[in-house]
Amino acid sequence: MTVAATSPHVMPTYGRIPIALERGQGCRVWDTDGKEYLDALAGIAVNTLGHNHPKLVPALQEQLTKLIHTSNYYHVPLQEQLAALLTERAGMTNVFFCSTGLEANEGAIKIARKYGIDKGIAQPQIVVYDHAFHGRSFATMSATANPKVRNGFGALLDGFIRVSPNDYTALEEATEGNPNIVAVMMEPIQGEGGLHPMRKEYLQQVRALCDAKGWLLILDEVQAGMGRTGKWFAHQWAGITPDVMTLAKGLGSGVPIGAIVAHHAAATVLQAGNHGSTFGGNPLAMRAGVETIRIMEEDGLIAHATEVGQYLKSQLQTHLGSLPGVLEVRGQGLLIGVELNQPCGALIGLAAEAGLLLSVTSDTVIRLAPPLILTTAEADEIVARLRPLVETFLAA
Ligand SMILES: *Cc1c(COP(=O)(O)O)cnc(C)c1O
């Protein structure tokens, strides 16, 4: 471990691997000792275009020379440009910009509660899910399921009802005759919860139920959105449209950005003074979003994510799927989980030693979320590095 790989003055909020990364190129990064890694994590589904992308970096450099930040006292044309790009692709109408995923979800929860209160529902309730992760602010950690995230901070926000994923009967029973429900909020693929997808039929049933009851369907696409699954947004595999969708991680290819995309009644709930953000929608972040979408389309990265994702998943199935102790290889596009029969957090460090960046989510699921520019040769390399690691780990 070098001096660069310690942080005595930074709060100890993360269990860090003792390496410090210095630069990147494409799907590779190098640490301060010059060691090379293949990046199969992309900063947790953030670096959509990998590192030092030849089209993104010059565009951001040009933006730096024009404006980094202004204020929402004034119009920001790039906000309108990015909002138009997002709403066209989502089939929705309006966007609020912020800087992170939790902020987008916090705003979505505010929309749902105000939507209810405006209708005369004094104590609005939102349906959320077992294993859900929506962030670490008070509202979003209250919507989150994991006790490690929720516990130790005193009273949480009330007004959440929790049900199990993919169980429509349970949802009906939990909400039966309850006049206070205003929304259902879920991740179309639960990311931190272990890469568990909501089934297509379930999403369609919930959409229909929300329509029948006048509830908002809020989809947290912070991790699964922005082309990662091979569609712009993961819910598009089910052919539905939410009322509110939240985005962040991959939207700016590494520049902090979040967005609430809405339509119908949800699009106009928040009025002047109800919500805002100093950094939200600043020109640098907006340019990163606009260029990310432009480059993804120019370079066909959504179709590519489907193809190389299928290839990576099938190779993982072939080379890891049959190992005793590997329970399942699952995922869509380039959001792939390999579930083991035991906690495997140690693999994050072991993989880094072997030159591979990945993460483990929900204790037992290896998460791969590489940049969408991953080549099939790099996919082969991921499998070649991962298989012996998992084999040795499971045999120990
Ligand atoms: C990462 C994540 C969040 C929180 O995003 P931050 O930018 O860390 O606040 C919320 N929801 C989902 C599904 C996520 O994956």
UniProtKB/TrEMBL annotation:
<dbReference type="GO" id="GO:0045303">
    <property type="term" value="F:diaminobutyrate-2-oxoglutarate transaminase activity"/>
</dbReference>
<keyword id="KW-0808">Transferase</keyword>
<dbReference type="GO" id="GO:0030170">
    <property type="term" value="F:pyridoxal phosphate binding"/>
</dbReference>
<dbReference type="InterPro" id="IPR049704">
    <property type="entry name" value="Aminotrans_3_PPA_site"/>
</dbReference>
<keyword id="KW-0028">Amino-acid biosynthesis</keyword>
<feature type="binding site">
    <location>
        <position position="136"/>
    </location>
    <ligand>
        <name>N(2)-acetyl-L-ornithine</name>
    </ligand>
</feature>
<keyword id="KW-0663">Pyridoxal phosphate</keyword>
<dbReference type="InterPro" id="IPR015421">
    <property type="entry name" value="PyrdxlP-dep_Trfase_major"/>
</dbReference>
<dbReference type="GO" id="GO:0006526">
    <property type="term" value="P:L-arginine biosynthetic process"/>
</dbReference>
<dbReference type="InterPro" id="IPR004636">
    <property type="entry name" value="AcOrn/SuccOrn_fam"/>
</dbReference>
<dbReference type="InterPro" id="IPR015424">
    <property type="entry name" value="PyrdxlP-dep_Trfase"/>
</dbReference>
<dbReference type="Pfam" id="PF00202">
    <property type="entry name" value="Aminotran_3"/>
</dbReference>
<comment type="pathway">
    <text>Amine and polyamine biosynthesis; ectoine biosynthesis; L-ectoine from L-aspartate 4-semialdehyde: step 1/3.</text>
</comment>
<keyword id="KW-0055">Arginine biosynthesis</keyword>
<comment type="similarity">
    <text>Belongs to the class-III pyridoxal-phosphate-dependent aminotransferase family. ArgD subfamily.</text>
</comment>
<feature type="binding site">
    <location>
        <begin position="220"/>
        <end position="223"/>
    </location>
    <ligand>
        <name>pyridoxal 5'-phosphate</name>
    </ligand>
</feature>
<dbReference type="GO" id="GO:0005737">
    <property type="term" value="C:cytoplasm"/>
</dbReference>
<protein>
    <recommendedName>
        <fullName>Acetylornithine aminotransferase</fullName>
        <ecNumber>2.6.1.11</ecNumber>
    </recommendedName>
</protein>
<feature type="modified residue" description="N6-(pyridoxal phosphate)lysine">
    <location>
        <position position="249"/>
    </location>
</feature>
<keyword id="KW-0963">Cytoplasm</keyword>
<keyword id="KW-0032">Aminotransferase</keyword>
<dbReference type="InterPro" id="IPR015422">
    <property type="entry name" value="PyrdxlP-dep_Trfase_small"/>
</dbReference>
<feature type="binding site">
    <location>
        <position position="278"/>
    </location>
    <ligand>
        <name>pyridoxal 5'-phosphate</name>
    </ligand>
</feature>
<feature type="binding site">
    <location>
        <position position="133"/>
    </location>
    <ligand>
        <name>pyridoxal 5'-phosphate</name>
    </ligand>
</feature>
<dbReference type="GO" id="GO:0042802">
    <property type="term" value="F:identical protein binding"/>
</dbReference>
<dbReference type="GO" id="GO:0003992">
    <property type="term" value="F:N2-acetyl-L-ornithine:2-oxoglutarate 5-aminotransferase activity"/>
</dbReference>
<comment type="subunit">
    <text>Homodimer.</text>
</comment>
<dbReference type="InterPro" id="IPR005814">
    <property type="entry name" value="Aminotrans_3"/>
</dbReference>
<feature type="binding site">
    <location>
        <position position="277"/>
    </location>
    <ligand>
        <name>N(2)-acetyl-L-ornithine</name>
    </ligand>
</feature>
<dbReference type="InterPro" id="IPR050103">
    <property type="entry name" value="Class-III_PLP-dep_AT"/>
</dbReference>
<comment type="pathway">
    <text>Amino-acid biosynthesis; L-arginine biosynthesis; N(2)-acetyl-L-ornithine from L-glutamate: step 4/4.</text>
</comment>
